[in-house]
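Read as amino acids, tokens; as here:

___
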Amino acid sequence: MAFNLDVPDPIPQKVAFSPESGAGTPYKSNYFVGRHITLARGESVTLSIGAFTKLHDCSFRFEMLVATTSGAFTETIDDHGKPFELTALAKPRIEGAPFSGYQATYINGPYYGLSEWQKVDPATYKHK
């Protein structure tokens, strides 16, 4: 699931991940509508939770409400006691060059066919 931090009251959205790019495509629907996670004693579940923004510089924590037979409590999920931080891409200075808002750009990973970081010219590099 992922949260769109460009909206005033983000909801947990369902996300479909692309194995080729490692990127997610969020749906507009609330992840928990019609869905509950119920665990037996000693059972665990892993949730993959993300956040995205196209417009803002954000800091945030997640709060999860957990209901048990002994009562409900809130679990805070953060970055080792600090908020998570996320920044939108810099606005391009050159049309058609999505990274032209940066002084330097580096790429890496299987999506690019690379195993090491490679510097590219942000004024001319066009993402696949």
